[in-house]
Amino acid sequence: MDLVALLRKETIAARRNLGLVIVLLVLLPGALAGGTVVFEQTIPQDVPVGIVAEDDASENDVAIVRAGLASFATAEEYETNDEAIRALQREQIYLVIRVPGTLMDEDANATVTVVSDHAFVPFQEPIDETVGVAESELDRTFPATVSVAHEQVDEPRTLSEFLVPTGLFAFVVLYALVYLPYQVRSERLVLDRLQTESSLDAVVASKLLFYGAVLAVPAGVVAAVTAWLGYDVAALSPSTLAVLGVTFGYLAAIGLAVLFVSGLAKTALFANLGLALGVVALSSLVYPVGFFSTTQRSISRALPTHYSAIATRSTMLRDAPAALYADYLLWLAATLVAAIVVLKLSLVVYRRRR
After folding, report:
1. Residue 64 and residue 146: Cα distance in Å, rounded?
2. What was the pLDDT predicted at 30?
3. pTM over 0.70
4. Which of 16, 243, 314, 329 is the most exposed place for a label (fewest CB within 10 A)?
5. Residue 284 — left, alpha, or beta (φ > 0 → left; ψ -120 to 50 → alpha)?
């Protein structure tokens, strides 16, 4: 065959797999390019922070400090320091600002206290840089001589330790959305035979249970490697395994639903890959929500994977009770139930098309 004939053959083959070609060459690049719109800056401009008025602080003091934070943060006032610290550990906010009541006294030395969480390592350097700027700005704004003190809660962590739960979470996303659907599709030729011996629902359920249980193996590997490196990371704690299991469950159910709705087409694998990339990019795994843009903050807060990432980080790095983020766990459990319902409906669609 000459070159023209070979090119014609490739064109016919591409036309035969038009759905796959569109997903791979049009939708994925378009999604990757379009997804960049939520990353608008590299300097934080909309990070959620909490403000706590100390006993003698006035509403005017708080309002002026809030205005001073407007250039890089969205401030929310808390009644007590304990409430603010709780929100800090739940990653509802990323800083706590304690406002003293002597800011308007020109003879006073006032100390504004900034509290951050050791566990959220990537935000520490921006905070250190911001403290110096904030001190000069506040000192210029208020009559008092203002200094800024920086306090931190939880145990000190390195960036390497912080990235362990982040990496493990990203692995679970790819494992659930890409590997498991690929594995199921590779058995498509024997699915009909399996259905004569058992129901399709039972076959799919067995795969979810088996591959969910197998997650203990990579978690164990991570635990062994981090122990060897001297990291204090609870990769095998029951709460960590529970969060990873629930996260795998709802992501795998969604990935399999996409696969069965497509009729086990190869296109579904690329669609799931795009979904996995979107989850990793938009769930605020490394930087605070609002660090890049208001849009990114809104998207992250709407995704269950964002709360899975927080819960995973909390169980592995923070010495905090599960009650601290119990509402997150309930939200994840509800997501799992909804995903299983969607998977069930996709199996109905698949059977009707057979």
Report:
1. 13
2. 46
3. yes
4. 16
5. left
